Every structure is written in structure tokens, then in C-alpha cells.
Amino acid sequence: MESIPAAVVGQKINEWYRHIKKLNVTDAEMLREEIKRELDVMEEDEQAVLYFQLMDFRHEQMLEYVNPSQNQVNKADYLRAVEGEGKKLTGIMEYYVHFFKGMYEFSKGEYIKAIAFYRHAEKKLDKVADELERAEFYYKMSEIFYHMKQTHLSMYYIEQAYHAYKAHKANGMYEIKVIQCRFVIAGNYDDLCTHEKAIPHLKEAEESARNLGNKYMLAKALLNLGDSYKNMGDQDRALYFLIKAVDQAKESGAKELTQIYYELALLHFKKKEHESGKHYFELGVESAERFNDWFFTNLLNVLKLLYLEGAQPTAVADALEELDDIRGYPYLEELALVSAEFYTEIGHMDESVYFYNKMIYAQKQIRRGEFLYEI
Predict the structure, then answer these.
(1) CA of 216: how far to CAs of 88, 206, 223, 319, 344, in Å?
(2) Does residue 62 surpass a pLDDT of 60?
(3) Exposed (0-12), middle (13-18) or buried (19+): which is 277, by Cβ within 10 Å?
(4) At residue 91, does pLDDT exceed 80?
(5) CATH number belonging to domain 130-249
């Protein structure tokens, strides 16, 4: 059989990547198999092989995103295949390598490592000609800065991603990307305590997700609405949206179901509705075990010690220590405040002061986060 030019295979990989970014699973799977067959008869080209390996890694990330309840293959294997040891990479390939490594580290909660890779990728962003591909990079930067509570940096990047995706919203292919951008925008507004600006974005996201029939995105929209109303102090509305989120998360197999149960348990416990709190706590533990979610297992453990097992201050303090890292600081801040208020209500002021100080410690660590990745 006559060999296939590497440029032809490269163009097919580009098309494959477009389907991956649009979450077109069926088309992406078909192209993946077609390209695999063509690689066997392609003219020798190291860059094309590396490009395929990178897209294969990105394909696995897409599958994990659209099927969060399923265990996927070890993505670290893909990264080891594209380390580039002894290989000279082009500018665009350097961009992809660092960008996808950043995504991988982010998925593990390694935010500082992820930012380091994203920064390397950003230096090669001028090699990326496609506006929507640059928007993907901007979105990922905004996402990680949001999780690190670096609100203004997150807003800087999300604005660029949002406008790029919204400009292409008419064909319906990038509606999900617009929804994702709205989640980040709303989360940043919540962190700025301007909740009235967050709610419209989340309601737009909810409506869009309903129109698309996307239960996973709808579950996230309802969860975020519940969280925003909780931050506003409107517990009844928060409960309303969180309860609605449960069904959508169950139907879509969303791992966010654990977070929804955690939020419901916390709200009921704070309202002194012990039995309801215990009910959702138990569901949360089940869900955390099913999804192997150690992070929310730690959060639920704090609720257990505080509300179900006698509120021993040393045990609660030890449980909060598990959240003493860059991913856990926002939750440490919230749960330390919850603990301080709990002990204030029962008249244990020494313990209350201790947990207030723990909250202040978490706030300081969040503020320090912006300096951790600077040289």
C-alpha cells in the first residue's frame, strides 16, 4: 500500500481535535480509529506521531469529562509518551505539550504545577492561529485562577474566552463553552461578594442547559445557583436549587453529586435540622466512596465530627488540617467559620476563637496564592 503523507494525517488530527473541543464523542471516536489505521501506513514523521499521542491524551480527557462516573485509563501514560525526550519539538508542539500537561496537573488538584505548565504554553500561544483554540487556553487559565481565588486574574482570562465563544454561539456548537464561561464568571462574582451579578449568569446557564437537554450542565448550573444563594444567606432558595440538582446529577452520573449532598448536609445542619443533615451526610459518604473522591470525604468528615460525633475540638481541628493545601483553603475558610459559629452558640468561646483564627489563616493563604507561581 502506498504511504500516506504526514500532512494529510496531520489535517485529520486537526479535525479530530475540533470534534474533541466540541465534545462530539461519536465523530471524535470515528476519526481516532481512522487515524490509528493511517498511522500504520503513514510516511515517517516524528512530529505527526507526537501530535497523535497528544490528541489521544486530550481525547481521554474529553471522555472523562462527558462520562465522569466511568473510570478512564491512566492519563499519565499518555503524558509519558509525549515527554519529548531526545526529540526536537516545534513551537506549536511545545504549546500542546505544556497545555495538556497543565490540564493533567489541574485534574489532580496540583494547581501550582498546572500554572507552571500553562505559563510555558502561554509563551507559545502566538503559534496558535485559531481564535477558538486560544479561547480554550484562556478558559483553562481562568478556571485555575478561579479555583485559587485569584479573582481578578480569572476575570481577565474568562472575559477573553467568553467573548470568543459567544461570537460563535449561533451555530450551537459552542453553547456548552459559553455555559462553562458563565460558571466561572458567576463564581468570581460570588468571590467578590457581588452575588446579584452572579445570579443572572447562572440562570442563563440553567436555561441554556435545559434547551440543550444536557443534564450534566444543568446539574452544575443548579448546584452553582444553590451555592450562590447560600453565599447570599438565602438558605431556603439554596436548598430549593440543590434538591433540584440531585436528580439531574443522578441521571447524568455527575461526580458533582457528592458536592451537592455535602452542601445539603451542611445547610440542614446549620439550620439545626439534624435528621435531614444526617440523611444527606450519609448519601454524601456513599457518593464519595463510589467516585473515590477523597477530597469530599475529608469535607464530610468535618461535618461528621462537628455535628454527629460530639464536636470534640481537637478532632475537628485535626480534620481541618487535611484541608491545609492550596485546593483546600477555600473550604478550610468556610468550615473554620462554621466551626467557630458552632462553638460560639454553645458558649465555648476559647474553641470559637481558635477556629476564627483558623479561618483568618486560610484567608491569608488564599491571598498568598498569587505569589506562589511568580519567579
Answers:
(1) 41, 11, 11, 31, 39
(2) yes
(3) buried
(4) no
(5) 1.25.40.10
Mean pLDDT of the chain: 87
Q: 3-state class of 42 per DSSP?
A: strand
Which is nearest to 158 in space by CA: 187, 185, 120, 124?
185
Cβ proximity of 219 and 243 under 8 Å: no
User: Side chain identity at 86, as an amino acid letter?
Assistant: G
Average pLDDT over residues 83-102: 69
When pLDDT is averaged across residues 234-248 and rounded to a whole number, the result is: 96
Mean pLDDT of 11-21: 82
Domain boundaries, the chain: 130-249
Single pTM value for the model: 0.81
Would the pLDDT of 325 be above 60?
yes
Residue partners of 344: CB distance under 8 A and separation at least 6: 352
Q: Are 164 and 134 in contact (CB under 8 A)?
A: yes
Residue 216 predicted with pLDDT over 50:
yes
Angle 51-157-258 from CA coordinates, rounded to 5°: 80
Which cell numbers in the block locate residue 220?
452544575
Interaxial angle between packed helices 313-321 and 329-345, expressed in degrees from 0 to 180 and rounded to the nearest 10: 170
Distance CA 104, CA 61 (A): 8
Say what the pLDDT of residue 98 is. Answer: 84
Q: Which of 289, 287, 292, 215 is nearest to 251 (CA)?
A: 215
> DSSP secondary-structure letter at 73?
P
3-state DSSP helix/strand/coil % of the chain, to nearest 5: 80, 0, 20
Cβ-contact 333, 299 below 8 angstroms:
no
Residue 369 has a pLDDT of: 60
